[in-house]
Known about the structure:
It holds the Pfam family CFAP77. The chain has 178 residues and is mostly helical. The chain is built from 6 helices and no strands.
Amino acid sequence: QPELGKTMRNCYSLPGPDFTYGMYMHKRDGGVPEAIGHWDSVKAKPHIRVMPRDFVAMGRGAVDEGCTTAREFALYYKFRDIRLKDKDILRYGCKIPPGMTFGRPPRPSTPFFDLMQHRYKELWMESQRARTVVQHVVKKKIGEVRENRTTFLRTHPLPVKEESFWHPQRFEKVWAPH
Length: 178
């Protein structure tokens, strides 16, 4: 019977201090001296990446060979296995090609000599002059009246047609009663 207001006690006795709870793993553990003296180094294996199939190139090649049916295409795909090219050259562990740099290229420096001689002001002034000339020419063209069909016909009248007294031959041989 448990005591009043208390839970029932566990009747099992705990194992001694040399007992190991869980599973014991047999491995060498020489402490700090072995950790410093003998590093477990893992040599990297070369990562060979299998690229997916290039169905666009295979389909193009099959058409060039003259394949027309699905069975011929399947046979071509079976015997001609074309893979995609690996464009991802900067993957983890890959070597960077020589001469390759990262980031944006720097802006070219402004020539100080051009600043001192007001070269940019002169270039701007030339562009403004050219712009005003173009605007003047466009304005002049707008002032002129465009020639349409009516004004053309007033200045160049059509030639007068001569009236012909020609009649079809079937009207010439009409029988007339006397």
